[in-house]
Amino acid sequence: MLERLLPTRETITQSRLLRWLGPRVHDPLLWHVNRRSVARGVAMGVFFGLMIPIAQIPAAAVASLLLRGNLLIAAASTLVSNPLTYGPIYYFAYRLGAGIIGTRTPPDLTPEDVERPLRMIDSLNQAWTWVTGIGQPLLVGMVIMAATGAILSYWGTQLFWRIRVSAKWRKHRRARQIRAAARQGAIGGA
Hints:
The chain has one domain. By secondary structure, it is an all-alpha fold. Helix 6 crosses helix 7. The radius of gyration is 23 Å and the shape is flat. It has eight helices and no strands.
């Protein structure tokens, strides 16, 4: 099903935009849709989607090149975080990190309060103040969420793939049994 949506290997290897990657881009695992490469791609995409707020797709692509995961699946999986989900993700990450570190969270903290400092950091002093204040629990929470999300998405993809394959085999086996029974009925009735 996914293979119809993805570009062919020939299209990708002849692309001028990807030529700078050299022979690494020709690795079949980067483009083939199989259980292992798709699971790696999903895990890398979710990890970088939850871990870093900017340049998620390039980070997931580099990781895919190094760890031989499906490149396009990794890029698409980074969309687990997007402008609609940044606030809730960072809010949950902050609360998680604060709970683990033991930092007391302000009761009226909103998702916008967590996200605002990321946009306002413009000096090293501000960055240090942010990291020692709201940043440390946020970073701890983001690391935990990203690692947990990557592990769960990897094994979830593996499980989903296995269930789909076994369902196809059961359907194929049932169809074969029905054809055999129909042949037996045709032979016995003749």
